[in-house]
Specification:
alpha/beta, Rossmann fold, UDP-galactose 4-epimerase, domain 1, four-stranded mixed β-sheet, globular
Length: 325
């Protein structure tokens, strides 16, 4: 019997990219899902999913959203693109602290049975390259992620306090670089994979990439991340963080070449602008705890996941009739 069958589950940030895959996975498990977000018009929610427009920084809104709920998956966060985040760091910090604090306390008071807090790889110190969950926080997050990273760190501390003081079952996950169908392809907000896909499908010429292409990264398909969240709440609600990342790593140069190949743009004129910064030379989360505690050992290969995502984008934007040829 599934842990989620016929259970009432709240997904915050319910109109987001990762939440869409989580809601789909919960539906397959027989859960009764309520999605909550601040957007007034829900888009593409599966049939049967209840939707609530609410600002979870407000205690009354949290109480309404939590009514009758058994489990909570807290994915909601306040944020924008990188440049906007840098300009609005005070708001980024205070709004996320308020959001996390208000919802967690309301969930405890509502008697929620289990709670999942979605943290981020932004919590890790800037100097780390191989990200072990128990790495000491002896330095702050990277300057570009300072406010968001600290808000997520404090959220983890809050969860630990509620777990220890009240015995509240809480899982913590740190997803790293999720991608897949439904991702955000807005050029002002998109992350590296959707940005590369959009540019390749638009046949950008020349195809210029910042840096040398040598940094090493790990990406995870959103379905795998959603599966990891379900497993974390079921098997490891002990308030110890778990990285959710693929065991497959790639350099940015390899990623770019794979994207243009699968997008049918094999003759792209690639240029790596070494005058621009590379960022972290290596940023790879450990997947050992996910394997040991969750049994999460199989992942969608990057090539397969990219091919699916490109096809999804092409179908909706009608850029190519048959991507990948």
């Amino acid at each position: 019997m599934s842990l989620y069958k016929n259970r009432r589950v709240l997904v915050t940030g319910g109109l987001g990219f990762l939440a869409s895959h989580l809601i789909e996975a919960l539906g397959l498990q027989g859960a009764i899902v309520r999605a909550v977000d601040v957007r007034t018009e829900p888009e593409n929610l599966p049939q049967g999913v209840e939707y609530l427009c609410a600002d979870l920084r407000q205690p009354a809104a949290c109480q309404q959203a939590l009514r009758g709920v058994d489990y909570v998956f807290h994915l909601a966060a306040v944020g924008w693109g990188l440049h906007e985040n840098m300009k609005r760091q005070p708001q980024l910090l205070s709004d996320n602290l308020l959001l996390n604090t208000t919802l967690l306390d309301a969930a405890y008071r509502a008697g929620v049975r289990r709670y999942l807090y979605t943290s981020s790889s932004a919590v890790y110190p800037a100097y780390l390259q191989d990200l072990e969950e128990d790495s000491p926080w002896d330095q702050p997050p990277h300057d570009s992620e300072l406010a968001f990273g600290w808000a997520k760190r404090v959220g983890e501390i809050q969860a630990r306090v509620y777990y220890r003081h009240y015995g509240m079952p809480i899982a913590i996950v740190r997803p790293a670089n999720p991608y897949g169908p439904g991702d955000n392809f807005d050029p002002k907000k998109s992350h590296v994979i959707p940005a590369l896909i959009r540019r390749a499908m638009e046949r950008e010429h020349p195809f210029t990439v910042w840096g040398t292409g040598s940094p090493v990264r790990s990406f995870i398909h959103a379905r795998d991340a959603a599966r990891g969240m379900l497993l974390a709440l079921e098997k490891y609600a002990v308030c110890e963080p778990v990285n959710l990342a693929s065991s497959e790593t790639t350099t940015i140069a390899e990623l770019v070449k794979l994207v243009v190949e699968l997008a049918g743009y094999g003759d792209a004129q690639l240029q790596f602008d070494s005058t621009k910064p590379d960022g972290h030379p290596r940023k790879v989360p450990s997947v050992r705890r996910a394997a040991e505690k969750l049994g999460l050992v199989e992942y969608i290969p990057l090539r397969e996941g990219l091919k699916e995502t490109i096809a999804w984008y092409a179908e909706r934007h009608q850029v190519l009739q048959e991507p990948g040829r």
